[in-house]
Specification:
The protein has a 6-stranded mixed β-sheet, sandwiched between helices. It contains 10 helices and 6 strands; from the N terminus they run H-H-E-H-E-E-H-E-H-H-H-H-H-E-E-H. By secondary structure, the protein is an alpha+beta fold. The radius of gyration is 17 Å and the shape is globular. It has one domain: Glutaredoxin, CATH 3.40.30.10.
Length: about 230
């Protein structure tokens, strides 16, 4: 698993947002993104999808009694994740019965992992609401996001820098990040962002309208594409 993980990290660092033509064509369902291109998707084993609720450090936003759940796996230095964060925020704000689970998958660089550790430390110290606010601020940044930038933003939200640093470097955060990344790897999420819904993994962000259509389809027929 470790060798496979390192290979994925190197591949994503070299071409973080581009899937091969074979991967792009790998579609369990025919899904077309807003750019007119097919969105790679795959069937996910239930024994893995069920593990998401057991992950430490995940942020849940939206309904506490949802009729539909969506999970998003992201990297703070992924350009497409920036747009996806805005789109998902809009969807969960508009849809009172939707719950979104947010998982760290910092596969693009060590700087991404540093920022993710700070975000997890803020979650542990200040709770999910502040951690979510930090997440949105991190995705709103221009340029590279690293641990120092994340610490600066965390301080602006009322977190004590020394406490965040100590927590971020501790075993609790390290174990949480490892668990989140291991599940992402096991699910085959080699692109960021990736989504999980109704037993299907989407590699990449299809756009707000296609994602809204997927949510509507799952409600209508329990599948990401009806018919």
């Amino acid at each position: 698993m470790l060798d496979r993980r390192q290979t994925l990290i190197r591949l994503m660092a070299a071409a973080p947002l581009t899937l091969s033509s074979q991967e792009s064509a790998a579609q369990w369902y025919k899904i077309i993104g807003e750019d007119g291109q097919p969105v790679a998707n795959l069937r996910l084993p239930v024994e893995l999808t069920a593990q998401i609720d057991e992950l430490p450090g995940i942020i849940r936003v939206g309904s506490t009694r949802p009729d539909l759940s969506l999970a998003e796996f992201t990297d703070f230095n992924c350009p497409h994740c920036k747009r996806a964060s805005r789109d998902v925020h809009a969807l969960v704000t508009q849809d009172r019965n939707l719950r979104v689970t947010l998982v760290n998958n910092p596969i693009l660089s060590p700087m991404s992992a540093q920022a993710a550790k700070v975000a997890l430390a803020v979650f542990a110290l200040k709770g999910a609401a502040t951690a979510y606010e930090l997440r949105m601020k991190l995705f709103a940044q221009r340029g590279t996001v690293d641990g120092l930038k994340a610490l600066e933003l965390a301080e602006g939200l009322g977190a004590k820098r020394s406490e965040v640093e100590q927590m971020a470097d501790g075993p609790k955060v390290g174990q949480a990040l490892t668990a989140q990344m291991k599940l992402a790897a096991a699910l085959g999420f080699v692109a960021t962002p990736s989504f999980m819904i109704a037993g299907v993994g989407l590699l990449g962000h299809p756009g707000r309208k296609p994602l809204r259509k997927i949510l509507d389809s799952v409600r209508a027929c329990d599948q990401v594409v009806c018919g």
